[in-house]
Amino acid sequence: MSKEQTFIASIDQGTTSTRFFIYDKSARIIGSHHVEFTQFYPEAGWVEHDPMEILESVRSCMTKALDKATADGYNVDSGLKAIGLTNQRETVVVWSKSTGSPLYKAIVWMDVRTSSICRKLEKELPGGRTHFVESCGLPLSTYFSAVKLLWLMENKEEVRAAIKKGDALFGTIDTWLIWNLTGGVNGGIHATDVSNASRTMLMNLKTLDWDKATLKTLGIPAEILPKIVSNAEVIGKIAKGWPLFGVPIAGCLGDQHAAMVGQACRRGEAKCTYGTGAFILLNTGTVPVKSTHGLLTTLAFKLGPKAQTNYALEGSIAIAGAAVQWLRDSLGIISSASEIESLASKVDCTGGVYFVPAFNGLFAPWWRDDARGICIGITRFTSKSHIARAVLESMCFQVKDVLDSMHKDAGEKGEVKNEKGEFLLRVDGGATVNNLLMQIQADLLGSSVVRPADIETTALGAAYAAGIAVGVWKEEELFASGQNIKTESIFSPKSSVEWRKKKVDSWCKAVERTFGLADLEM
User: Model-level pTM?
Assistant: First the structure.
């Protein structure tokens, strides 16, 4: 006998895998599936994905999650009210409107091939690196979508020709998926949401529309850009040929913004998602706060066309969990990511080893694309356990660097503290299952770290947005004291102030050693 209920689903398209979740009205997962896809590294510093492989990963995940829920007796076909979408941000695709084929592989957010374009623009523009900060909140950096699009326009004849013919469409991964899911060449909807658009460097943070002055300065035609919608509204319906035909796509957010919704972060509250990179966002309320300490001013979320816009301060860390993958895939020190906790736990310190994973430069708060990774302090005493622990510490040091900047930018009035006067960091993402990592983080911060029962808050946030759009949930109920967020563990600091200061001083020395290493001979 099937179980008649209300369901909401979400597509979570990340940097290394795609996942699909089906939730009941209590936000309990009743079906899910995930598929990893190929990472391409054609040159040093270049990272690409195959857009068609990503599409197929979505199809596979939808089909298998639906099969699982159906096998467990859930009538998802009749009870599914909407689908939310969340995705890796900044990654760009340009494709043909007439054929639906990508004109080049997707250039991934961490790709640094555009460093020469950034340097050129810094010299040419009156405002240098911060020329567009006033409109979009972002500095010139290889990180953001606009410069990746410029690289495609300058280096790929297929892209230039398609733009000239009026046959080119541009988008981040959300746009690529929405267009295909809603029909593709047969009337697919060309749209993005305010959070993904805010990461392109092309959207004005105040008007929430493409900034005409920026487009003119960079020579980007507005015709190839998608329309911008809120994070919670019906964008279109799933087209024939896809699983769940006719179900509305009603929520769309960049992954880090979705995690903020999944964690119900109100003004003054922050979360850190530990994934391939690590991303810390602090909700600053309805007014953008300009950073003077190396952070980004960005949009947090806008849960409906008429809803208030929430803004955020963000610190982005390029390499977090990716360093663990490097230990596994490139060095063979571990055979699975989960092994790093037991390996690092065999020693109680790093033995003076410091690892800075500046594989493609450093993001916030340093913003040094000339930095490269180093591992220093190695002696004959050093073991693979010390290196594993240094890798975990590197993730935590980078988060501390960002939070220190965040505290300075937000000030006392911009942060919510508990009854003990602590600023609590909410954490999520796959790496947070590592208890040692979480304890190291609390020790280095000198304040508590809160891990929810459901660490997959990115997918949950996209589901919440879709559910809000179709009336399954209400925004005010979701954010009421974070009552829907169940806490699993709180990690409290056990370290001394003196120990913490010495460790941080040593880390800062190590970071400085990474600068200016990008031109080392191969």
Answer: 0.88
